[in-house]
Amino acid sequence: METIPISKFKATCLAILDKVKRSGETIIVTRKGEPIAQIAPLSSPNRPQSWLGCFSATGTIVGDIVSPVEDASEWEALRQ
């Protein structure tokens, strides 16, 4: 646990809050050496570990998603 004086906390409040959120570490704020506040990250047990794959169970693929929708003979860009 890191301890910082209140003057440093006041000067760098937003950076300290970002650090707590990013690292998950608790910080103690002191005044004249006496602890007056504890800055700790919120605990959120329902938060997924990563956003990657968070919708994997919500959709289904129907049909062929690789082949073109129309034949190549129908493409206007290929006509000359």
Q: How far apart lie the N and C ends?
A: 72 Å
Overall structural class, as computed from helix and strand content, comes to: alpha+beta
* Oligomerization category of the chains in this entry: single chain
In CATH terms, the superfamily is YefM-like domain
SSE order in H/E notation?
EHHEE
Strand content: 15-25%
- The portion of residues assigned to helices is 10-25%
Spans of at least 5 consecutive residues whose pLDDT stays below 50 are none
What is the count of structural domains? 1
Number of DSSP helical runs? 2
Number of strands: 3
| Largest sheet report | 3 strands, mixed
The best one-word shape is elongated
Rg calculated over all Cα atoms: 27 Å
Strand order of the largest sheet: 1-2-3
CATH architecture: 3-Layer(aba) Sandwich
The name CATH uses for the topology is YefM-like fold
Mean pLDDT: 86
CATH class (first level) name = Alpha Beta
Structure, explained:
The chain is an alpha+beta fold and 80 residues long. It has one domain: YefM-like fold (3-Layer(aba) Sandwich). Helix content is 21%, strand content 19%. It has two helices and three strands. Strands 1-2-3 form a three-stranded mixed sheet. A hairpin with a 2-residue loop joins strand 2 and strand 3. The radius of gyration is 27 Å and the shape is elongated. The N and C termini lie far apart (72 Å). The mean pLDDT is 86.
